[in-house]
Amino acid sequence: AFLHLSQSYTPIDPNTNILDLSIDSIQMNNTKGYTCEHSFNPSIYISNKGDLNIDTLDLSITINDSNILNYTWSGLLTPGMSSTISIPSFYISEAGDIELRAHAVVRNAGTEYDLHNNGIMDRFNIRSQQSLPLVEHFEYGIIDSLWFINNVDLAQTWGTIATEGLIWNNYSATIQLFR
After folding, report:
1. What's the whole-model pTM score?
2. Which of 120, 106, 114, 115 is closest to 53 using CA atoms?
3. pLDDT tens, residue by residue, 130-162
4. Are strands 119-126 and 34-35 parallel, antiparallel or unpaired?
5. H-run or E-run covering 26
6. Under 8 Å CB-to-CB from 74, ≥6 apart: which residues?
7. Which residues, in sequence order, are bridge partners of residue 102?
8. Which residues sit opposite 71 in a β-bridge?
């Protein structure tokens, strides 16, 4: 088919002059899976994987599917170049599981080569701060809303056992150490 069409038409490489923005990562210094903080100031790392210059991006930040911030970045991102975008601070009032999504669109541009790399997601958990003295409440087992346990191997390592000597409870947390 190519030989037949090339006799009447001039072939054009389908991958020339492509436009392709990529959000490579998002960095938030105060989250490592869980945090007690509610204020965030993320940095987004972008790169130009296409052949055309990129000069303006429209970014949107959503938390649990609610748009909380729109931000416009202006600069020059030449092909193969990377850059860091510092997003203005924002506050998340809720606690619990958080899903942060960042999505970017190249302003006044044609169709992008790969739209799937224009977004990124970060999941973490905001824990409610507890006042002192801290009463663990282990009488009812380990309550997920009070305790965050991260077992990389997904094994059940933590448990509770009956104890004596504390005036406010009769149970303590224990870690199961296996050989």
Report:
1. 0.71
2. 106
3. 776 666 666 667 777 677 677 777 677 777 788
4. parallel
5. strand 21-27
6. 55, 56
7. 61, 120
8. 59
